[in-house]
Specification:
alpha+beta, 423 residues, 4 domains, Rossmann fold, 11 helices, single chain, D-amino Acid Aminotransferase, Chain A, domain 1, 4-stranded antiparallel beta sheet, Dna Ligase, domain 1, 4-stranded parallel beta sheet, 27% strand, 30% helix
Length: 423
């Protein structure tokens, strides 16, 4: 039986999905996490405690582990484990994106540099330091623009500015966020800078794919029907198949393929975010991992296989080229957080589940926990899943379900309860 090291933090949304997929595929899963598992002593060959913040040192520990218990693949379930997976696979000589390609994909500045060098469509951009004067920087900027921390993901800390005043406000807000993260747990040195990019108007789409020997195979193209125009960029609805014309989807796939070549990413799962407008298709980012959160549940393949099953089979060298996504349209809504405070309750779930096409409603933040919206927040309230004959029906079902949900959030400062409808 083949053995694969699955890297996942204790806060991962994807742990259960990947472990279930490993059982279905028939591979032995070794769990690598930042904390020792409760039953690790009972199965020492199935668990490994690693420091995700020091991928090079942890890769050496993986190599020592594999000397006695050989591994056939290393895979990160989430974004946090991607650098460690790259270093560990390199140490073992296993097929995996190289550490350099992972760095290029994860650093917003390096990604932009590589695309510009390759002559690919790219917005104007410049990197500025957090120790610089935002008032002076605002005079140098171009408008409208988007300010982005170099190392955060999922639109965290991403803010649009339309003039000098909003630039200064956005800069200071990002500065405060990064200072708070540093105080809490530390952040990479690259977080001492901000990338300022030209704002690109247009529709946003996402592409899910698998790369083999440098060749992209598209698994799904998602429409994002809600406008993402700022000042913050909280994603909500994903629907597939895309309703964009075939030539536009082909152009998107070509841009992702070209961007992969530019950063040297030659194998493994990828999740790409793109903007489409009259100037063409622009790659906003390419993550060397699969779609985040619980969103992968919106995808099913031949034989009711999950995305995680495809990724695991691909990682251990199986041929998955003929496996296709189901014919039905499907989608997911990431439930946005309407305001900061303490979540006291969620109402309307049963009503949402009764809507035609809705398959599940998952609230992933427990009652009693603090919630915080973007740009500071890093989590969604939960996920709603739908499946129907057409993308239009899927989108309608997701919107209707969201409208049935009611979130009771108690503002911490005021101490007063506020009920906020999903719609």
């Amino acid at each position: 039986m083949k053995r694969i090291l699955l890297l996942m933090t204790t806060s991962s949304y994807r742990a259960q999905a990947f472990l279930e997929a490993a059982e279905r595929v028939g591979v032995a899963a070794v769990v690598g996490s930042e904390r020792e598992q409760a039953l690790a002593s009972a199965n020492p060959g199935g668990n490994l405690t690693l420091d995700f913040a020091d991928p090079e040192a942890s890769a050496r520990r993986v190599a020592a582990f594999a000397a006695d218990r050989p591994l056939d693949a290393v895979l990160a379930a989430d974004d946090d484990g991607v650098p460690l997976a790259a270093w560990a696979a390199a140490a073992l000589g296993l097929r995996h994106p190289s550490p350099d390609s992972v760095r290029a994909a994860r650093s917003k500045r390096v990604f932009r540099d590589r695309l510009a060098t390759a002559g690919l469509p790219s917005p104007r951009y410049l990197e500025v330091g957090l120790d610089e004067d935002p008032v002076v920087l605002a005079h140098r900027a171009f408008y409208p623009c988007v300010l982005k921390p170099l190392s955060l993901s999922a639109s965290r800390g991403v803010i649009r500015a339309d003039d000098e005043r909003s630039f200064v406000a956005a800069f200071r807000r990002i500065h405060a966020l990064l200072a708070r993260l540093t105080d809490a747990s530390g952040v990479p040195d690259s977080s001492r800078s901000i990338l300022v990019e030209e704002y690109l108007p247009g529709r946003e789409i996402a592409l899910e794919g698998l790369v083999t020997d440098g060749c992209l195979r598209t698994l799904a193209v998602f429409d994002k029907p809600d406008p993402l125009e700022g000042p913050y960029f909280e994603e909500t609805i994903y629907v597939t198949p895309s309703r964009l014309p075939g030539n536009v989807q082909e152009a998107a796939q070509e841009q992702v393929q070209a961007a992969l070549a530019a950063i040297g990413l030659a194998t493994g799962p990828v999740h790409a975010e793109l903007r489409v407008n009259e100037r063409g298709v622009f790659a906003l980012e390419i993550a060397p991992r699969s779609i985040g959160g619980l969103c992968s549940r919106a995808l099913r393949f031949d034989g009711d296989a999950s995305l995680e099953e495809l990724i695991l089979r691909h990682a251990v060298g199986d041929d998955v080229r003929r496996i296709e996504r189901e014919r039905a349209a499907s989608g997911v809504m990431m439930l946005p957080i309407p305001g900061a405070g303490v979540l006291r309750g969620v109402r309307g779930r049963d009503e949402a589940l009764r809507i035609a096409g809705i398959e599940d409603v998952r609230v992933t933040i427990p009652v009693g926990q603090h919630v915080e919206p973007l740009p500071e927040g890093s989590r969604y309230l939960g996920f709603v899943f739908a499946r129907a004959q057409t993308p239009e029906l899927v989108e309608g079902a997701l919107r209707a379900a969201h409208g049935r949900l009611l979130f009771d959030i108690e503002p911490e400062a005021a101490g007063l309860s506020a009920a906020t409808a999903g719609a």
